[in-house]
């Protein structure tokens, strides 16, 4: 049994447990195991033989036994039993954007709908409206979502694609004769979703690379295998991975070509043509003399073209080629520039870690400050803090700040922007916080005018520092809510309110284009992981990807200020 199939079983178990409304920790454990198994460079069979299952991150005694059972018997009794409890059609329904497990279960219990086809027919006839929480609009969204699934136009979220690509690279880079290995395509450009994955390898033994590639434990199906090129479907999501073995002298040209974007490549080629050269995936050529000029590295090509090196995240033909020719490319923000995380939830609301635990993690990351921003009073489902609890939290943070060295804890809140644009605490409480994020968590379906007004009102509020996840999107699940972004950016600029780059891999909100627009308008941006547990503090990297795609520089982000400067800004 292949790793990918075992990952799939664990993923399905997680989904069935979700439908059953099981313990979220247990569901998360199965999901995490599936995720980690997908990027293993070695077969689970081989790991089992060496007695190393429990060394895999996220695999404890119970899951190790389950893996052993699957390998030895080809099946898992626990899984077979669960499957009998839940029709397979319901599991497939979980793929429909915006349709949660509880609703699916309700629809099944009340209307006996157990396949996607039946669901579609019922939605078209308006029959789902007998279920609590489903309106005409919900039915329309379900129909749209089903169409999307049937078209198979599913794209993979960046973090999942990075995980699986990383697994392949880890196992292939150790092969004898492999000199260079890189992923290209939209993954290298760090787009928020990825269609398929391209990997390039320089090796003097292509056939060995090809064999190892198609035998990788995550492969589920081999689509094609030639002497220097192969394609497979891999992982729990069956994502396509194309591998090419490239010669040393062509590597840079191939990397640039397969990184794209298409628009970027077209423009570079035109530029070269104007100067009498030809660029393709093999190099730069002088056509008249029929001579190859360069192509070993990307740097070589850029300098031949008299351009500065353009980071992959910028290669979208949004002015980066012109900027590079002028020598005015932005100096993109990087992890080393980040001095703190400005959006974290603790046990006080719906986070899973104590403030002390969070602070210790922040210290490990060399942060100078960390903002603990729990939900506000109205958001009861997420443990929003009542006034009394706010004072208790302020006291705890005061004490911790006295005790801890080298880091400053900012007492914050992520306060709801209420229906009319009011913020969910009175001024007397708001002024007690070091930092206030204001976010919309309800009324997404209001008119554009009303939603925009709410956010603009929050920008005007003198206690609000940051607008959290400004468009409300959940990638692949929920579109941006309908707001006038120009108005919001204008208000943010006029009232000196920052807009957030929410780093959660499913949000990445603002997205790249809005970041660029905000930056160009002189608005400050604030990166926040929105972490609800300790491991999510690592999502800063995803936020940085989208920030870099939005041309963000150190000077544009609150998080790059040192503590003193930030405090001055917050109080100003
Ligand atoms: Zn939020
Ligand atoms: Zn939050």
Q: Helical region count?
A: 24
Point out poorly predicted stretches. none
Output the CATH class name of the largest domain. Answer: Alpha Beta
* Rough outline: globular
Distinct compounds present: zinc ion
CATH evolutionary superfamily of the largest domain: Metal-dependent hydrolases
Distance between the termini: 61 Å
What is the spatial order of strands in the main beta sheet? 11-12-13-14-15-16-17
Number of strands: 17
Helix coverage percent:
40-55%
Radius of gyration: 26 Å
Overall tally of domains: 4
CATH fold description of the largest domain: TIM Barrel
- CATH architectural group of the largest domain: Alpha-Beta Barrel
Average pLDDT reading: 93
Can you describe what's shown?
The chain is of the alpha/beta class. β5 and β6 form a beta hairpin. It is globular. The strands form four sheets. Strands 11-12-13-14-15-16-17 form a seven-stranded parallel β-sheet. A five-stranded mixed β-sheet has the order 2-4-7-6-5, sandwiched between helices. Strands 8-9-10 form a three-stranded antiparallel β-sheet. The protein folds into four domains: 3-151, DNA polymerase, domain 1 (Orthogonal Bundle); 156-246, Beta Polymerase, domain 2 (2-Layer Sandwich); 261-326, 2-Layer Sandwich (Beta Polymerase, domain 3); 335-571, Metal-dependent hydrolases (TIM Barrel, Alpha-Beta Barrel), CATH 3.20.20.140. Bound molecules: zinc ion (2 copies). Residues 343, 345, 414, 530 line the site of one zinc ion. One zinc ion binds at residues 343, 345, 414, 530.
Structure in a nutshell:
The chain folds into 4 domains: 3-151, DNA polymerase beta, N-terminal domain-like (DNA polymerase, domain 1, Orthogonal Bundle), CATH 1.10.150; 156-246, Beta Polymerase, domain 2 (2-Layer Sandwich); 261-326, DNA polymerase, thumb domain (Beta Polymerase, domain 3), CATH 3.30.210.10; 335-571, Alpha-Beta Barrel (TIM Barrel). Helix 20 runs parallel beside helix 21 (485-494) and helix 22 crosses helix 23.
């Amino acid at each position: 049994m292949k790793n990918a199939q075992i990952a799939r079983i664990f993923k399905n178990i997680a989904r069935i447990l979700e439908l059953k409304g099981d313990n979220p920790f247990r569901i998360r454990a199965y999901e995490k195991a599936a995720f980690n198994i997908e990027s293993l460079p070695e077969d689970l069979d081989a790991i089992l033989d060496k007695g190393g299952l429990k060394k895999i991150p996220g695999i404890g005694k119970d899951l190790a036994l389950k893996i052993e059972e699957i390998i030895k018997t080809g099946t898992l009794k626990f899984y077979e039993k669960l499957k009998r409890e839940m029709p397979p059609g319901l599991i497939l329904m979980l793929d429909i954007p915006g349709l949660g497990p509880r609703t699916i279960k309700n629809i099944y219990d009340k209307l006996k709908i157990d396949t996607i086809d039946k669901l579609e027919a019922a939605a078209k006839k308006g029959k789902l409206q007998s279920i609590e929480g489903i309106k005409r609009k919900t039915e329309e969204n379900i129909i749209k979502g089903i169409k999307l699934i049937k078209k198979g136009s599913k794209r993979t979220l960046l973090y999942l694609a990075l995980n699986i690509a990383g697994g392949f690279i880890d196992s292939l880079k150790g092969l004898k004769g492999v000199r260079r290995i890189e992923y290209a395509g939209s993954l290298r450009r760090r787009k928020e979703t990825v269609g398929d994955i391209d990997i390039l390898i320089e090796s003097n033994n292509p056939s060995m690379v090809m064999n190892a590639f198609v035998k990788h434990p995550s492969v589920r199906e081999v689509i094609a295998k030639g002497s220097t090129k192969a394609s497979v479907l891999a992982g729990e999501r069956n994502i396509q991975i194309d591998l090419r073995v490239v010669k040393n002298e062509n590597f840079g040209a191939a990397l640039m070509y397969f990184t794209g974007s298409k628009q970027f490549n077209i423009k570079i080629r035109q530029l070269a043509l104007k100067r009498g050269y030809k660029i393709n995936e093999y190099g730069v050529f002088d056509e008249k003399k029929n001579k190859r000029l360069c192509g070993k590295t990307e740097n070589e090509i850029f300098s031949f073209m008299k351009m500065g090196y353009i980071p992959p995240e910028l290669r979208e033909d949004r002015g980066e080629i012109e900027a590079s020719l002028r020598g005015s490319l932005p100096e993109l923000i990087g992890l080393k520039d980040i001095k703190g995380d400005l959006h974290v939830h603790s046990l006080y609301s719906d986070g899973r870690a104590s403030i002390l635990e969070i602070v210790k993690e922040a210290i490990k990351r060399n942060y100078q400050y960390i903002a603990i921003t729990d939900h506000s009073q109205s958001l009861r489902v997420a443990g929003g803090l009542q006034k009394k609890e706010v004072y208790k939290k302020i006291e705890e943070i005061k004490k911790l700040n006295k005790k801890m060295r080298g880091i400053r804890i900012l007492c914050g809140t992520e306060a709801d922007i209420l229906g009319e644009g009011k913020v969910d605490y009175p001024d007397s409480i708001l002024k007690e916080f070091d930092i206030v994020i204001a976010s919309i968590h309800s009324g997404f379906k209001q008119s554009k005018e009303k939603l925009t007004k709410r956010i603009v009102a929050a920008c005007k509020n003198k206690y609000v520092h940051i607008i959290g996840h400004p468009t409300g999107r959940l990638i692949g699940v929920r579109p941006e809510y309908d707001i006038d972004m120009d108005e919001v950016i204008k208000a943010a600029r006029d009232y000196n309110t920052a807009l957030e780059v929410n780093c959660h891999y499913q949000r990445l909100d603002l997205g790249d284009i809005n970041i660029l627009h905000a930056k160009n308008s002189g608005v400050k941006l604030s990166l926040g992981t929105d972490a609800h547990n300790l491991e999510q503090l690592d999502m800063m990297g995803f936020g940085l990807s989208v920030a870099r795609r939005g041309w963000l520089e150190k000077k544009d982000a609150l998080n790059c200020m040192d503590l003193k400067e930030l405090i001055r800004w917050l109080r100003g």
